[in-house]
Specification:
The complex is a heterodimer of chains A (about 625) and B (about 350). Chain A is of the alpha/beta class and about 625 residues long. Chain A is built from 24 helices and 22 strands. Chain B has a domain of about 210 residues: MetI-like fold (Orthogonal Bundle). In chain B, about 75% of the residues lie in helices and about 0% in strands. The chains are: A alpha/beta (about 625), B mainly alpha (about 350). The structure holds iron/sulfur cluster (SF4).
Chain lengths: ~625, ~350
């Protein structure tokens, strides 16, 4: 019998007194020992399913139709205490944010022990032995010393291992993993996914794996359910959904994700974004119709029926046969010409941080060691590396936000190492920075127009009307409607905010843009829009960019050259294609191996910890 | 643990010495601009001008101000606060007799404030979002707006005068004599095995302590409630539910342990204020503590006592703050340096 079965599952939220279905008529089943992938962008309702399993829905949300059966029992209608007995025992969860998933004021040992005590694992001594066994099973050595540590003393990867160990402690029948690796570095991500897969195989656990990454899902899941705005778009065997997507949304999602192998292809750009709760009410027919390239009149008449397109493969689309015809655009050529004299040269850049412990001891930490490179006009250079590799510190030094400990930076032939007002003004003329988190980078009390033209305002250039006109011109250049000029940042979506952020940097007409993780945390379709926007802007106005990212596929798509940073040093650099196709440094190799391959049937072999002991240490595990 | 607290205490000591120096300077200066002449006051009214002049010289009052300050300071450092002009006794022994009484009063009041605050905070958290929330909210605001002396008057009228249930003057019933010892009455009574004295002293403390405790509890309630609300947004609470832990366990072991941290730092600040607040309550209840000593001294322009009591208040508050900060460090592992 199947472990988890959803039949016409519908979850509704009350919105201004009305009931709006957030999840509608979902059907799926997970057999014992199988892995179901729930794939979709943020807002698709995939996390809501995890909450529905536990019946811990946000206030105002409720299951209004259908049923959700676990091991023959009705999860929705069973009494609270019965369900609580199941949670943590038969149904276990692995969360998205490992660090905040553990209580900061309790030690790891106390938290594991509490869980084991609730599972009736015998006395304290027995529980301690069991805890050590569990930590061993998730490949955390030195378990004994870990038990006395607090969560903040551990890396994210270690915390996630602890949480996985706790989840598997009761040999659960069902595991719900909600984006368990999104917050982690690539190499750690691969190991965590493999750890879950290993334990799942050993214990025969059924798994619901929630992710936004179709490629990752194809790699580790048996079945995939693609969700769009709370509706099932496509359901079927993982390979079939990935290789022969029948729903246009699945296909578009795949085409908007940059490839890691083969020839560089263009990115498909889906227009607009997924309808939100209030927009769903107004759509009669297919919810994807406003963005669908294959839309016809029939699509808007009624919700599309779910039809069979293959063995166990279903899609909610009336034209599944046309899906394969959707193609990615021809890629904009990477413009490697015109590399004349360098625009910015960085020579021996280093940064050492000093931290104080107590009154007298102090320790030094070299965040950046001897980094040299040259950035030419119109060139996009990617800096890749994991957290703590020093890539963001490089960016901050080049923008003048941090003083280098050593080394020199020259822009257009002039040295900008000193901190005089003249140098700062000179640097500002050339370099602008785009920050990672648009939410905090944009002043919430200013309108978009004033944010975008901040540089002009500060310099006192132009009248208010002129600045508004300039803001509107910039907004339309970055693909936002000029009416947005009068909005506040809180009224924009994450992708729109990041565009505003870019527009603000471009307002000063910089020749160099420094972008620190500007697409991380954004949905794939929004990310594709932004990447294509950057390429178009370069064609139209011409600028060079230093693009800092942990995402290798994005750098492969966008950048002409790449620097790989590891523990503050550049370990490998060169033209992107050359470095990615034939990496020479072992660290680059392990980074590349950690990314799930494009072809789900290819073996995914992230290097194990034992093969690269020194490197793995630095990676935080 | 010790290793992390020691540097804090070290830093605090340095700070405290600086603060005490500044306070002592202020006390010294303020009292010197007062239009009273300590030399004239310490002599009988029949003294001649020449006598007063001689006394002034003897007391060092003819020296330049900075020098006077240094002399006074060196006396203070040697625990010599001089003699009270009014009581004709050593200031040190006067303060030594009254300080324990005030500390006893303040500590018990703080315990009551903390207990009421925590219970009230939990109740307010419990009724959040329900129809009872506005009532609880109103109640806490009302509590917040009634100062301690009003509570004191209410209590005296209700429990003291109307019901005659509890005493409201002094520290002990008149038939008892103060036991010898530390000056901490509750402690001394127990040490002497006199439960009757203990009970009498305890009854005398109920009304003043509740007046102070109730006045200081609503702020604790509100901070605890809002930090509990914040903590319940955290992932680890959600995850604890997903592990099937009971709501009670989640509250006590996971939520309260985190929410108590901001509450504790508030209580530290409050304790300092509360210690100053004892003055008014002592006067109302004729409680023979530091506050009444201070009031008497001011009435009699008894400069040495005013100076000593001022410094005593300051020292106690500094000690309280250091203790609370150390406690905070112990309870919050994130602040501990590895
Ligand atoms: S039903 Fe129509 S609009 Fe919807 S996905 Fe299919 S083709 Fe596109």
């Amino acid at each position: 019998m199947d472990m988890l079965i959803a039949k016409d599952l519908t979850v509704s939220a009350s919105l201004h007194g009305e009931r709006v279905p957030v999840i509608r008529e979902l059907n799926f089943s997970v057999a014992p020992g199988r892995v179901l992938g729930l794939v979709g962008e943020s807002g698709a309702g995939k996390s809501m399913i995890g909450r529905t399993v536990a019946q811990l829905l946000p206030p105002g949300f409720a299951v209004t139709r259908g049923e959700l059966m676990f091991d023959g029992q009705d999860l929705v209608r069973m009494p609270f205490e019965t369900r609580r007995e199941l949670l943590g025992r038969d149904i276990a969860f692995v969360p998205q944010e490992p660090l905040s998933g553990l209580n900061p004021v309790l030690t790891i040992g106390q938290q594991i022990d509490e869980h084991l005590a609730r599972l009736d694992f015998g006395n304290r001594k027995v529980r301690r032995d069991r805890a050590l066994e569990m930590l061993d099973a998730v490949h955390l050595t030195q378990g004994a010393s870990l038990l006395g540590k607090y969560p903040h003393q551990l890396s994210g990867g270690m915390c996630q291992r602890v949480l996985i160990a706790m989840a598997f402690a009761s040999r659960p029948k069902l595991l719900v993993a909600d984006e368990p690796t999104t917050a982690l570095d690539v190499t750690i991500q691969a190991r965590i996914v493999q750890l879950i897969a290993e334990l799942q195989r050993n214990e025969g656990t059924s798994v619901v794996f929630i992710t936004h990454d179709l490629r990752l899902a194809a790699q580790i899941c048996d079945e995939i359910l693609v969700l769009y705005a709370g509706r099932p778009a496509e359901y079927g065997p993982a390979r079939a959904v990935f290789s022969e997507p029948a729903h246009p949304y699945t296909r578009c999602l795949q085409l908007s994700n940059p490839a890691m192998s083969g020839a560089r292809r263009g990115l498909y750009t889906l227009p607009e974004r997924m309808p939100g709760l209030s927009a769903i009410k107004g759509i009669e027919g297919c919810l994807f119709a406003p963005r669908c390239p294959n839309v016809t009149e029939g699509c808007n008449a009624a919700p599309p029926p779910v039809i069979d397109v293959g063995a166990g493969h279903r899609a909610a689309c009336i034209h599944p046969d046309r899906t394969a015809a959707i193609a990615a655009p021809v890629p904009a050529a990477i413009d490697a010409s015109g590399l004349g004299t360098p625009l910015m040269t960085v020579d021996g850049l280093s940064k050492t941080f000093t931290t104080r412990h107590g009154l007298f001891q102090r320790s030094e930490f070299a965040a950046v060691k001897d980094v040299s490179f040259a950035l030419h006009g119109n060139e996009f250079i990617g800096i890749v590396g994991e957290s703590g590799s020093g890539k963001s510190t490089v960016a901050r030094m080049l923008c003048g936000l941090e003083r280098p400990s050593e080394g020199a930076v020259a822009i257009a032939g002039r040295d900008v190492s000193d901190d005089s007002a003249a140098t700062r003004a000179y640097r500002r003329d050339y370099v602008q920075m785009v920050f990672q988190d648009p939410q905090s980078a944009l002043n919430p009390r200013r309108r978009v127009a004033s944010i975008v033209t901040q540089a002009l305002e500060a310099a006192g250039t132009g009248t208010g009307a002129e600045r508004l006109a300039r803001a509107e011109a910039l907004l339309s250049e970055i693909g936002l409607s000029p009416e947005m000029a009068l909005r506040f940042p809180s009224q924009l979506s994450g992708g729109q905010r990041q565009r505003v952020n870019i527009a603000r940097a471009l307002c000063a007409e910089p020749r160099i843009l420094i972008a620190d993780e500007i697409v991380s945390g954004l949905d794939v379709s929004v990310q594709a829009q932004l990447l294509n926007l950057l390429l178009r802007l370069r064609r139209q106005r011409g600028f060079a960019m230093l693009f800092i990212s942990h995402d290798l596929s994005v750098v492969r798509y966008l950048c002409d050259r790449v620097l790989v940073m590891y523990r503050g040093e550049v370990v490998e650099s060169g033209p992107t294609a050359a470095v990615f196709d034939a990496p020479s440094h072992p660290y680059t190799k392990s980074l590349l191996a950690a990314v799930p391959p494009d072809d789900p049937s290819a073996a995914w072999a992230p290097r194990s910890r034992d093969a690269e002991p020194a490197l793995a240490l630095g990676a935080g595990l | 643990m010790i290793a992390t607290i020691l540097p804090l205490i070290g830093r605090r000591l340095v700070m405290s010495v600086l603060i005490l120096l500044i306070v002592s300077l202020l006390l010294f200066l303020v009292l010197h601009v007062l239009p009273v002449d300590p030399a004239a006051m310490s002599l009988p009214p029949t003294a001649t001008i020449a006598d007063i002049e001689a006394m002034r010289r003897e007391m060092g009052l003819d020296l330049p101000l900075p020098q006077q300050y240094l002399i006074w300071l060196s006396h203070v450092i040697h625990a010599d606060f001089g003699n009270s002009i009014h009581f004709r006794r050593s200031v040190l022994s006067l303060v030594g007799e009254t300080l324990p009484a005030t500390i006893e009063l303040a500590v018990l009041s703080m315990i009551i404030a903390a207990a009421l605050g925590i219970v009230g905070g939990l109740v307010m958290f419990h009724v959040r979002g329900s129809r009872k929330e506005p009532i609880a909210d109103l109640g806490s605001i009302m509590l917040l707006s009634i100062p301690e002396f009003l509570w004191a008057l209410f209590f005296i009228l209700i429990f003291g005068v109307a019901l005659q249930a509890l005493p409201f003057t002094g520290r002990l019933d008149p038939q008892f004599r103060l036991p010898q010892g530390t000056g901490f009455l509750l402690f001394d009574a127990l040490a002497a095995g006199r439960l009757d004295i203990f009970w009498s002293a305890f009854k005398h403390m109920i009304l003043p302590c509740f007046s102070l405790g109730i006045a200081f509890s609503p702020a604790i309630m509100r901070v605890l409630r809002s930090s509990l609300i914040d903590v319940y947004q955290e992932d680890y609470i959600h995850l604890a539910r997903l592990r099937g832990l009971s709501e009670r366990r989640i509250l006590i072991r996971h939520a309260l342990k985190n929410a108590i941290l901001p509450t504790l730092s508030l209580m530290g600040v409050q304790f300092g204020i509360l210690f100053g607040g004892t003055l008014l309550v002592e006067v109302i209840f004729s409680y023979p503590g530091l506050g009444n000593l201070m009031v008497d001294a001011v009435r009699n322009a008894d400069l040495p006592i005013i100076q000593a009591v001022g410094l005593a208040y300051c020292v106690v508050v500094l000690i309280i703050n250091t203790v609370v900060d150390s406690l905070y460090l112990v309870l919050n592992p994130k602040l501990r340096v590895r």
